[in-house]
Design goal:
Blueprint (H helix, E strand, L loop, with lengths): L3 H20 L38 E2 L5 E4 L2 E5 L16 E4 L1 H7 L4 H4 L6 E2 L13 E2 L2 E2 L5 E3 L2 E2 L15 E8 L3 H4 L6 E7 L7 E9 L3 E11 L6 E11 L10 E14 L2 E15 L4 E5 L5 E8 L7 E16 L4 E24 L4 E28 L2 E23 L12 H4 L4 E20 L2 E19 L12 E16 L5 E12 L5 E2 L2 E2 L3 E12 L5 E22 L2 E21 L4 E16 L14 E10 L8 E10 L17 E11 L10 E8 L7 E4 L2 E4 L4 E9 L1
Parallel strand pairs: 8-11
Antiparallel strand pairs: 1-2, 2-3, 4-10, 5-6, 6-7, 8-9, 10-11, 12-13, 12-39, 13-14, 14-15, 15-16, 16-19, 17-18, 19-20, 20-21, 21-22, 22-23, 23-24, 24-25, 25-26, 26-29, 27-28, 29-30, 30-31, 31-32, 32-33, 33-34, 34-35, 35-36, 36-39, 37-38
Family: Belongs to the TonB-dependent receptor family.
GO molecular function: siderophore uptake transmembrane transporter activity; signaling receptor activity
GO cellular component, one term: cell outer membrane
Length: 736
């Protein structure tokens, strides 16, 4: 860390020099010669946050978190997730896919996987039906642990302690494709998924919703907020949800209680601070899979339609919370200070049990287990946004530093149904006999800078960052080993990452672009052969085109990419045990995303992706494809909201998700190769005020996922699962 003070002083000097120059420029703002003035997107306060406006009626409006993201129905316009500035998505030289508030309301996703299901290049369901974790792949890379951000800050996860998402608490989801370590620090080479929380609004609103559906589902939710005082300088929002439900597996629950308060204080037009909090208590199942048929070498031959677990000892209870703030102060029209800080924590108690037959050995394996995790994390990001002009060039310059800290502890215990010390006995926790124990602390500090340059129609982005990290890892795997004799494994080091991009904005809506970036992430809590894993590094080159037809509410993005990753952490089941390994690989492909909304109420979202994966290391897997990643996938969702006539108030929607064949393990065994499959989803809704003015604000809606209940076997990392079956949810919402 010796170079830290030098880099820190250098950053402060750079920040000061740029800021002083901008501050001394005064209030006058000269227009750049020859610059192209694009149409300004204005977000009216009363329209923020509600896709259909207060009361559920009225004309279509701009939704999204104020100052963080804006969208018009299905089509996102801006998001800070791409560059940490207000650059329009059309102009940014990166691929940004967005899931807007309108899309969330229409599809009613129950978890992050369902919310991302129609995003190009995203693979969900790699582990069949599994409500325990928000796990998914982007462009063939598992981003579960290192690619999820919340409100621009990294969301920390440990091997079995992963924060879970409640979609009802979100305004929008932004998916930034490609390496973004240059501005976000430790993160996945495939991209960043930024979950944007609901925020206070400057108008009063409220809604309550009740749901019922498959597997005895009962759910209630509320969301309300608005100004607290007369001048509107203090605003609040409170969002909550409670659910009691089963699932297609009898031993797996889907219960949760969720509450998310938010408060915004604007003492002046130049200063704003928003407090964001959340608490969730959720219970699901520790074993959420099906039995596999093993051969004599304990290699799976496929899944059988018998649940792995009984419900005697299978509760997975997780309590999680976060509290933080976003501070913004505008010194003048040229210089703005941003600071985002969050503390988050979770605790889990995961019971599990399972029965696995091994017919070749005339053997049935039975076991139970208990995992207890505690995870804490602090993330803080401070940066200046400085806008200056140098001749014909306009600059948006970021200079910042951030700090993050992760600490987690995991205790593991194992037993059998016939063991006299069966861990399902209630006194097991008090016995203190956990045979396995893991503890890690990880610290990262980074300094970064970025310059977005606008010259006539050209948009150039340059960014660079240096991160320092250190990690302490301690583990024991037997009850006979005293903890004070275990060797502490230490890691430390640093890494430079960068990003450069260029785009050209035409006056007829076409924007070609190209970009290159690198990534770096120390892996949390991973051990291979008794040693902590190496940090994962990656790089990607990408080129494409964006098109927004003038006068329409639409956006089309097409791109080709070549992504390389070194020392990526992957999981595989070997001899019935889930193990970690590291791979070097390259993924290349093509993506197409088209989203549009017409004045007659028709909305359309279509996506196609081609991903060709190839492992290069270890040598035993050279040339093999990465498990569970299909080469071809196609997704389309179409909707219609009647605006007038006898069907006014009726909303219909339907979608198809198709993916091609893939392999069930990294050795590409043909015995567990996954066939192609397609799923059909549907939605119908009706605004009851069209029957009677007294029913204004009432809306009925029914959603179905996997409508045809097509449940095929899907294998991933040497274990086989079944796709999630049909789920139908009916809701009634009252908004005023």
């Amino acid at each position: 860390m010796g170079g830290l003070s030098v880099a820190y002083r250098t950053l402060l000097a750079l920040t000061a020099s740029v800021s002083i120059a901008a501050l001394s420029a005064g209030a006058a703002h000269a227009q750049a010669a020859g610059g192209t003035q694009l149409e300004e997107i204005t977000v009216q306060g009363q329209n923020q946050g509600q896709a259909t406006g207060p009361g559920g009626g009225g004309a279509p409006t701009i939704d999204g978190a104020p100052g963080v993201a804006t969208s018009d129905g299905y089509v996102a316009k801006t998001t800070r997730s791409g560059t940490k500035t207000d650059t329009p998505i059309l102009e940014a030289p990166v691929v940004i896919n967005s899931i807007t508030q309108k899309q969330l309301e229409d599809r009613q996703p129950q978890n992050l996987q369902e919310a991302l299901a129609y995003t190009p290049g995203v693979k969900v369901g790699a582990f069949g039906f599994d409500p325990r974790y928000d796990s998914f792949f982007i462009r063939g890379v598992d981003v579960t642990y290192t690619g999820i951000f919340r409100d621009g800050l990294r969301q920390f996860n440990a091997p079995n302690g992963l924060f879970r998402l409640e979609p009802y608490g979100l305004e929008q989801i932004s998916i930034l494709k490609g390496p973004a370590s240059a501005i976000y620090g430790a993160s996945s080479s495939a991209g960043v998924v930024d979950l944007i929380s609901k925020r206070p609004t400057d108008y009063k609103f409220a809604e309550v919703e009740a749901q019922t559906g498959s597997f005895n589902r009962v759910q209630g939710a509320f969301d309300f907020g608005g100004p607290v005082n007369a001048d509107g300088s203090v605003m609040f929002r409170l969002t909550g949800l409670g659910r009691n439900a089963g699932t297609e597996l009898d031993a797996v629950k889907d219960n949760r209680a969720f509450i998310a308060p938010a408060l915004t204080f604007e003492p002046t037009d130049a200063t704003k601070i928003t407090l964001l909090g959340e608490y969730m208590d959720a219970t699901t199942g520790g074993s959420a899979a099906y039995q596999n048929d093993y051969d004599a070498n304990f290699v799976t031959r496929g899944a059988i339609r018998t649940p792995l677990a009984s419900d005697d000892f299978n509760d997975f209870r997780q309590k999680q919370g976060r509290i933080g703030y976003e501070f913004e102060h505008q010194f003048n029209e040229f210089v703005t200070l941003h600071q985002n800080v969050r503390y988050s924590a979770l605790s889990t108690r995961q019971e599990y049990n399972g029965t696995q037959p091994v017919p070749d050995l005339n053997l049935t394996l039975r076991d139970t287990g208990l995992l207890v995790d505690d995870v804490q994390g602090v993330a803080a990001d401070t940066y200046l946004l400085t806008k200056v002009e140098t001749g014909p060039a306009r600059h948006k310059i970021l200079t910042g530093f951030d700090y993050s800290y992760l600490k987690y502890t995991e205790k593991q215990a194992f037993g059998t149904f016939t063991d006299p010390n069966d861990i399902s006995k209630p006194d097991y926790d008090d016995a203190g006999a956990f045979p396995a124990y893991y503890h890690q602390t990880q610290k990262l500090f980074g300094v970064y800078g970025q310059d977005e340059v606008e010259i006539d129609r050209w948009r150039l982005t340059f960014g660079g960052r240096y991160d320092w990290f250190d990690s302490d890892f301690l583990s024991k795997t037997t009850t006979t080993t005293p903890r004070d004799t275990i060797e502490l494994q230490k890691q430390d080091g640093g890494k430079f990452t960068g990003r450069v991009g260029v785009s050209y904005v035409t006056d007829f809506g076409l924007t070609p672009f190209a970009a290159y970036g690198t990534s770096f992430v120390p892996n949390p809590g991973t051990v291979i052969n008794g040693s902590v894993t190496k940090p994962t590094v990656g790089e990607q080159v990408e080129a494409g085109v964006k098109y927004a037809h003038p006068g329409t509410n639409s956006l089309i993005t097409a791109s080709v990419f070549n992504l390389k990753q070194k020392d990526g952490v992957v999981y595989a089941v070997v001899s019935g045990l889930n193990q970690q390994t590291q791979l070097d690989f390259r993924n290349r492909g093509f993506e197409l995303d088209a989203t549009g909304a017409m004045q007659n109420g028709i909305t359309l979202q279509a996506a196609y992706s081609y991903i060709d994966t190839e492992i290069s290391k270890p040598a035993s897997l050279d040339g093999k494809q990465i498990t569970a990643i299909p080469r071809h996938s196609f997704k389309v969702w179409a909707g219609y909201d009647a605006k007038s006539g006898p069907l006014k108030g009726l909303g219909l929607g339907a979608g198809v998700r198709y993916e091609g064949a893939s392999y069930g393990d990294n050795t590409n065994r043909s015995q567990i190769k996954n066939d192609g499959r397609a799923f059909i989803d549907a939605k119908a809704s009706y605004e009851l005020e069209n029957l009677s003015a007294d029913l204004k604000g009432l809306k009925l809606q029914v959603n179905a996922t996997n409508l045809l209940d097509d449940r095929k076997q899907f294998c991933s990392s040497d274990y086989c699962y079944f796709d999630q079956g049909r789920q139908v949810i009916a809701s009634v919402r009252y908004r005023w």
